[in-house]
Amino acid sequence: PRPHPAFRVRPLTCTETRRGDQQVVHSLGDGAVHVSAARHDATFGFSAVFDAGASQEAVFEGSGMRQLVELAMDGFSCTVFAFGQTGSGKTYTLMGPLAQSEVQPASPAVLGLMQRSFTCLLEQSRSRGSDLALSASYLEIYNEQVRDLLSPGPPCALPLRWSKTRGFYVENQLSVEFESLEAIVSLLLQVPPPTGSQRRRTSAHALNRHSSRSHTLLTVHIHSRAVRAHPAPGAGWGLRASSGPSKQGTLCFVDLAGSERVKETGSSGELSVEANSINRSLLALGHCISLLAKPRGKRTHIPYRDSKLTRLLARSLGGSGITLMVACISPSSRCLSETLSTLHYASRARRVTTRP
């Protein structure tokens, strides 16, 4: 199968409206996106397109995310990653509003793909009669260093290794077992001492007040066994775990840092270094996707080793996994260059095939 790019166009912000930005991106229906601006008039096709009025629930149902959760329960390695310019709505699409916490939970209507997937996982477990064992790991790639967001204490760089059986993997990363899906959400949104998303590097600049300065990968490991009715001695019939084969799947959520032009962000010093590191890793990702999009007989070496990000996404992109790409864009005329770049990026991803 191929990655199924879904496209999301966020609304114009108040700042963009006040300065007179024009809306240059329009949804035509049936998965088509039209870009209309001076010297640019093009139409792109995708699996699904969500305009500014689309709800979080519509994105979850229409993107194929529910099917991805079901495949993960069936033992497949599944990945969803959000891509786009800084400020285009990637983190909101995956996680919902930034302000939510255990004390102030977000409204159910604005929960992102991540929380909705956890709920779907629980529903599927109950309807299938499955016994789930869950664990999760949460990493960020910041300035080409891999750091664990779940381990206590100050974050430290972890080595990235390769083996014939596991492929690329992070050595000494913490994997936490959970008894419930609610516990995963609790840890992700936990307030002091900070863990999970609270520890992710963010900064403010001219394009985005809460710009993500790192790529994050949350991986949920799903070990499921069928539960059937068996006669229990002296207790009649009851539900007990079947002795049949178990299934082990993964569901990985990748929130990529936003691509950006350093000149437009007004970044300098450390922020400039971060931006250049982000852009280099996204360039490496785009290069890998371009080569993977070629027919198998015409492919050259795929340079996964060019960045930490492409190493960790190697199996998801062109290996044994099933991948959903959610491309997020701003409809503003001021962001036209980055919007076209994202559209071409996602168009190339459509041609990549995997063998799950």
Automatic annotation (TrEMBL):
Q: Does the keyword Nucleotidyltransferase apply?
A: no
Supply the Gene3D superfamilies for this chain: Kinesin motor domain
Keyword Membrane in the entry? The reply is no
| Kinesin motor domain boundaries | 2-352
Please give the superkingdom of this protein's source.
Eukaryota
Gene that this polypeptide is encoded by:
Kif12
Cite the binding residues for ATP: 84-91
For this UniProt entry, what's an example GO CC term? microtubule
Keyword vocabulary terms for this entry: ATP-binding, Cytoplasm, Cytoskeleton, Microtubule, Motor protein, Nucleotide-binding
Pfam families associated with the record? Kinesin (PF00225)
Q: Which InterPro entries match?
A: Kinesin-like_fam, Kinesin_motor_CS, Kinesin_motor_dom, Kinesin_motor_dom_sf, P-loop_NTPase
A GO BP term here is: mitotic spindle organization
What is the protein name stated in its UniProt record?
Kinesin-like protein
Species the sequence originates in? Erithacus rubecula (European robin)
Give the molecular function GO annotations: ATP binding; microtubule binding; microtubule motor activity
The record's similarity note reads: Belongs to the TRAFAC class myosin-kinesin ATPase superfamily. Kinesin family.
